[in-house]
Amino acid sequence: MSIYILGIESSCDDTSAAIIKERKILANLIANKNVHKDFGGVVPELASRAHQQNIIPVINNVLTKAKIHKKQINAVAFTNGPGLLGSLLVGTSFAKSFALALDIPIITVNHMHAHILAHFIEDGSEKEPPPFPFLCLTVSGGHTQIMLVKSHRDMQLIGQTIDDAAGEAFDKAAKIMGLPYPGGPLIDQYAKDGDPEAFSFPHPRVPGLDFSFSGLKTSILYFLRDALKHDPEFIRKNMHDLAASIQHTIVSILMDKVRAAARQTGIRHLAIAGGVSANSGLRNAFEAEKETGNWEIYIPPFEYCTDNAAMIAIAGYFKYVDGDFAPQDTTPFTRYND
Questions:
Q1: Hey, what CATH class is 131-300 in?
Q2: Per-residue pLDDT tens for 261-317?
């Protein structure tokens, strides 16, 4: 008998729903609220209100696209953290009610673990998932982590940012440069025509496998402040080189720690996940390691890099097989825990 899982993702500003049949994705839809662009970042209250407006239409549409009836669903998997509390509460409340009405179990999913498990989605491509154990660099607007992944359910955090995330560094740097939100993709776009060594920014000295990006943001701010004093048109004239240099610095910081993790663990299978895994500079850096023969690399399709419910559904599937269900009194959490 087939297993159908409804996945719901509402950790930030995107309302997403997906249906999988075992590991095969049948439908994956995302509704985004563009109002955040006017404020230069995600506004939690607006995000939660948007989820309330979007969640029922998104669920209805994903069922239609998957061509299944709600009574065929075996369980509801949903993000219960980390994320914005108001946003998480919308997804959690809906999942509980939907499952209760159908008398089916609910499954809680850690958002960061789900990003990693996106590699195991079957979508018709010929890409093979990474074998266990493997290392995964998980990078997003809110988190930067190195995970030692021993199985679908056993993941060990071995490195993380001690302050800001890599995705936040991209967006804040873009904001300093006067680019609209979200600025990370724009940095990537401009960097393609720039010189990555045009400007030099410092690398933080952080022990072990941990990261730090707050100092980099400050150095970019002060560098541009001083440059603009001498030439008010400095950013406009050097937009491509600035973007390329900033991207090169962030990617170098990430890669230095990933290489250290690979040396320490002796693991040659390396993956990336999370929103920043869509960045061309980071993808190229991983591809370069593959060319040297040092690593076997695993890069997710673009549609599974940013927040999406397909990754929640696949994580829910593995938990369903193990019979790991959550009680109705479960509550969401805002900060990462393993």
A1: alpha beta
A2: 999 999 999 999 999 999 999 999 999 998 887 899 999 999 999 999 999 999 999
> What pLDDT digit, counting tens, does each position of 12-37 carry?
989 999 999 999 999 999 986 565 56
E strand or H helix at 76: strand 75-81
What H or E segment, with its residue span, contains residue 248? Answer: helix 239-265
Write down the H helix ranges in 162-213: 166-176, 184-191
At position 99, the amino acid (one-letter code) is: A
Can you read off the two tokens belonging to residue 289?
């390691």
Q: Letter for the amino acid at 176?
A: I
Read off the pTM: 0.94
Q: Where are the domains of the chain?
A: 4-119+305-321, 131-300
Which are the contacts of 1, defined by CB distance < 8 A and separation ≥ 6?
none
DSSP-derived 3-state class of residue 86 = helix
- Indicate the fold that domain 4-119+305-321 takes in CATH: Nucleotidyltransferase; domain 5 (3.30.420)
CA distance 245 to 227: 15
Q: How many CB atoms lie within 10 A of CB 154?
A: 10
Q: Is the peptide bond before 300 cis (omega within 30 degrees of 0)?
A: no
Give the model confidence (pLDDT) of 129-176 as tens digits.
999 999 999 998 889 999 999 999 999 999 999 999 999 999 999 999
